[in-house]
Amino acid sequence: MSDSDTLTARENWQTPEQHAAGLEFQRAHDTGKRKLCDFMQFWRFCADKACLRSRGCRGNPHTCFDVFWPQVPEEIQNDIRAMICEAAGRPEQAQSYRRAAEEIRPEIAAHENPAESGTPGPDAAPPHEAHMPRIRTL
User: Fold this and answer.
1) What number of other Cβ atoms are within 10 A of residue 121's Cβ?
2) Looking at the predicted structure, is the pLDDT value of residue 6 above 70?
């Protein structure tokens, strides 16, 4: 099944030209999504063995993207969005993504290095933890 199978049937209201334009748009969208999946190397974690063998996305890039994109840290997501906007000629939108990435960097640093920020990290033990005696069962 190819990625553009979702648009192969022409709707009753579509002219052949509209249908052809829709197919072309879908192919371009699929190609862009596949390139992004390859750039992010999602194929390393994909369950589809064809992707692993070819070291690139060979399945449905939308499914792969939907599974793995939420696992990418937000800071990196914003950087990638900014790169895409810059490549598309939208520098103002790219700048807003860069600012968003800069705003969350201190939060990420505080989470990764709790000793430097003065706030306890997620793995920090309470300061006065009572130790329970070891009990053996018979």
Assistant:
1) 12
2) no
CA 89/CA 92 separation, integer angstroms: 9
Amino acid residing at 128: H
In 11-138, beta strands by DSSP E: none
Q: 68-99: per-residue pLDDT in tens?
A: 999 998 888 888 888 888 888 888 888 888 88
Pick the closest to residue 111 from 97, 124, 98, 128 (CA basis).
124
Tens of pLDDT along 44-53? 988 888 988 9
Per-residue model confidence as pLDDT tens digits over 15-25? 989 989 999 99
Q: Calculate the CA 125 to chain-centre distance.
A: 32
**Which residues in 61-94 are b (16+ Cβ under 10 Å) and which e?**
beebbeebeeeeeebebbbbbbeebeeeeeeeeb
